[in-house]
């Protein structure tokens, strides 16, 4: 069984993976995997090699392994890729595809949606003037996070939520992750958590952003059952589909 770091794009999954790796926790993933498209399959062609061009944004690495991270999730054929307790990065929209028997504990990291969306803009994932895609991005944050919570509840998985924005201001809170995983020395790993002093926020307004901000704030207030009761994932999915079809 593997322990999981999950979250949305640009939510801090890579930063948390790196900090925990430096804390002494073994991980299953490459620093800079090169991905080549082969039909619908993403292939790793070696570890510690750089992404090309604009894709290489995280100077401390991505610590991903395809196709687990962003393709298939953990499947039976992956059970011997690592050893029990290895930490694996699985993106939030992929985790519910995983084989439950391969998943032990889950750390879900969330980031303020305004900052997260602007980071996606800076990385070229979304055009800053494409308000429809920005709105879809805000809704996807809520939808994918709820999907992880729902999946974890259905399969009786231990899960904690870590706030990226809080972590970069208070790096000692890495102890929450180490304590949860019951391994690693957070005092070492916290030295590798850096606040981006140039981080900017997306100025998107509207109901979608209001919903995303409200949800993000309540992630650190409500327990997981309350979040699932307060936010209707089906309604949010319909909102996203309607926007995508416009």
In the CATH hierarchy, the third-tier topology is known as: Rossmann fold
Based on Cα principal axes, name the global outline.
Answer: globular
- Strand line-up in the sheet with most strands: 2-5-1-6-7
* Overall pLDDT: 88
* Uncertain runs: 36-56
Biggest beta sheet summary: 5 strands, parallel
Number of contiguous helices: 10
How many angstroms does the end-to-end distance come to? 42 Å
CATH architecture: 3-Layer(aba) Sandwich
Percentage beta strand: 5-15%
Helix-and-strand structural type: alpha/beta
According to DSSP, the number of beta strands is: 7
Name the CATH class.
Alpha Beta
Radius of gyration: 17 Å
> How helical, in percent, are the residues?
40-55%
Number of domains: 1
- The ordered string of helix (H) and strand (E) elements is EHEEEHEEHHEHHHHHH
Summarize the helices and strands and which ones pair or pack:
Blueprint: E1 2-6, H1 13-22, E2 27-28, E3 35-38, E4 41-44, H2 68-72, E5 87-89, E6 103-110, H3 113-122, H4 131-154, E7 159-163, H5 164-169, H6 174-181, H7 186-189, H8 207-219, H9 224-230, H10 233-244
Parallel strand pairs: 1-5, 1-6, 2-5, 6-7
Antiparallel strand pairs: 3-4
Structure summary:
By secondary structure, the chain is α/β, with parallel strands linked by helices. The chain is 40% helix and 13% strand. A 5-stranded parallel beta sheet has the order 2-5-1-6-7, sandwiched between helices. A two-stranded antiparallel sheet has the order 3-4.
